[in-house]
Amino acid sequence: MEISPILQNVLAPPVLFFLIGAISVLFKSDLEIPAPLPKLFSLYLLLAIGFKGGIEIQKSGFTDQVLPTLSAAILMSLVIPLIGFLILRFKFDVFNSAAIAAAYGSISAVTFISAESFLESQKIAFDGFMVGALALMESPAIIVGLLLVKFAAPKNRPKSRKMHLSAILHESLLNGSVYLLLSSLIVGFLTASINPSGIEKMEPFTGQLFYGAECFFLLDMGIVAAQRLPRLKNAGSFLIGFAIFMPLFNAFIGVFVARFLSLGPGNSLLFVVLCASASYLAVPAAMRMTVPEAKSSYYISTTLGLTFPFNIVLGIPIYMSLVNTIIPLSPL
Predict the structure, then answer these.
(1) What is the DSSP code string of 13-55?
(2) What predicted TM-score, i.e. pTM, was given to this entire model?
(3) 114 pLDDT exceeds 80?
């Protein structure tokens, strides 16, 4: 029996567990995930996807498509926050506009993993080097957001809150998720190059456990996202609309860039998902520390409570449909 990609995505175990977590909050169940476990599973997912990505990069090599794709990924993570900032300035001050724009210019690793699961369920091939794009797109948006604050904030901002470039770069390039993802990527690459037997030894950990860990992590994400929903009332209709419009707008740009790069359908979807996703971990951590004037309820509630569930439930199949419509057209 043929079912639509949207329904097939909604009925996938990771999405169902996400919905189960969200429903548990709405119906006031006492379901609770002990605090250290979501962090542990988050680290596990980053390690596993980085390790597998490094192996795939070694296998595929640095082809003519790899460097242009990675360069385009970095460019998109620089441009998207600038567009978002200009839109948000119609309603918000510099601090909130920069923080929210940075969140939407960065990426969500879990959304990327969900897109990979979607492609596997649809039996659509993709390349491991896209993990490199994932790793490279998280930091530039943080840098752009902080630089926007540095140059556009009122001149009378307290000196104690002014930022030094070294601190900006350190927070952007060496935050925990970026560091672990890049390190795992290198370990996977070296293992595949020098000690291939290590791949087989790691497979039960990075391969067979992965799907179950993803389901468990999304169960917790469903709980957290539902807990954030009441705070959306404070965001207002403009920001709620932005949380849905911006991913779709970024996806539309992303699919044309993917077409220009001549990416296949699988790689195109992953590229589009990276453009359309928003950060709810790395960017909030950086903004809370360096831009305390911005309201965290704005950029966390919208990215986690609205954009993230929209992307994993509806966004991914919609983006796949967009890819299938635009990519087959004649080359740009």
Answers:
(1) HHHHHHHHHHHHHHTT------THHHHHHHHHHHHHHHHHHHH
(2) 0.84
(3) yes
